[in-house]
Amino acid sequence: MRKIALFLLALLACGDEDAFMPMDVVDSTCAEALCGWNKEQGELAASASWHEHQRAVELTGTPALVSKTYAFVQNIDCLSFSFLADIAPDAQLALELDFNDDKRVDTSAPVPAVRWRRFEVALRAPPEYRALRIALRKQGPGTVRIASLVIDSKLESCSTVGPTKLADGSMCSTDLTCASSRCVLGQCASCAAGGCGEGDACRSSDECRDGACAAGVCRACAKQGACAVNQGCSIGGQCASGSCSFGTQPGLTRYPGADGVCGDCASDAACGGGYCVLGRCSACRDDADCEGGQVCRYTDAFDVSTRTCMPRITSTVPRGGLCESAADCADGLACGAVEGRAKRCGFACLADTECGSGAVCATSGATRHVDAPATLAILPEWSTAPGRIATCYRTSSNACEVQEQCKSVVISGFTVDADLACCGGKCAQATLNPVDNTCVGGSQLPN
Predict the structure, then answer these.
(1) Cα pseudo-dihedral 266, 272, 277, 283, rounded to 10
(2) Tens of pLDDT along 16-54?
(3) Predicted TM-score (pTM) above 0.70
(4) Residue environment code for 137-147, b if the CB has 16+ CB neighbours within 10 A, otherwise e
(5) 69 φ, ψ to 5°?
(6) Strands (E), 263-406
(7) Most buried among 9, 81, 274, 299, by the most CB within 10 A?
């Protein structure tokens, strides 16, 4: 049975339930406080208990709120909280759980009034979660003193407790996680009975009441073929310009697989004497259109924007940056792309098969979800444009930059399938933390 000790103000029972052996129960490393807990309202202080040698912790103030967050936890279906406490009837104490630490209280339960008794409060978890915030909220003036609190995973404790489903906007990779029974583009999302309205998340146009599904969102303009430049799209016919480009605007991308945006042109004829390059009217198409030794380049390092003539830049471009040739790229990266995409350092791709043997297609901002290989978990790097750009990564050694490089590793000269984690630049036998792409435990493999 897995146990997560929140604060082990431990005590031993001797004889009947009311006879306890006195002992020092406060963790000396926490200066008589709750180890690692955050005081959001009120105060925490050392307190007397039923015995002069048995110390406890008191939550004071009205209201009062303390919480503790676990950035990475193994998913447990039933969370049982075993207390030894003195809680007054007018304390109005509640236990709250926020799965994924997104500032939503997903489930809660009142903590009963007791006088130095052991008792248990059990709550069910959703099918998946990547973080857990636990809070104790006191809303009344009554006394709250706690000598022990231990979290356990006893399934029998939840035999009469209903499942927890997450609200709209919560992270997900399966419909089972959501109260709406709809997981769309990595978030729980519901629709009205008559269908999804303007701006609602969607998986197909059949779900949209008035519009069409464009890059995961119902849009009336998409149904009318009138979406403006930089609005999301799934096909060119949804855009006023007739042009829908994919992978061109990583700064606007909401989620993997929803990276289509409307351009301002579909052909040179729409550009008034200029050139239409990947849906953008530009002053030049390539270096041959420039004079005086200038070169034709995009005006943004990562987003496909207007191309214009400018002096040659000598600095090298990082992975994911727009490029013209390998000479533009840092670290010996190749410059290229699949057809219809802008060339990028590291070779822009859509799937592993486009990267050739010994390479995988991946982003630094998303990784395959550890429990659902067909879906993606978003990492902090996704907040940056480079983190959203898929490029090819080599798998010819056990060195790694992204998790996908560790799907197969080289051991004694042989390439074998593996389920490893990328830790400190090397593939390791460890558990991946999908919240921040770090590793828990394990050991690295040799080169």
Answers:
(1) -170
(2) 322 222 222 233 334 444 567 888 999 888 888 888 777
(3) no
(4) bbeeebbbbbb
(5) -115, 135
(6) 275-277, 280-282, 295-298, 307-310, 335-336, 344-345, 359-362, 366-368, 376-378, 391-394
(7) 9
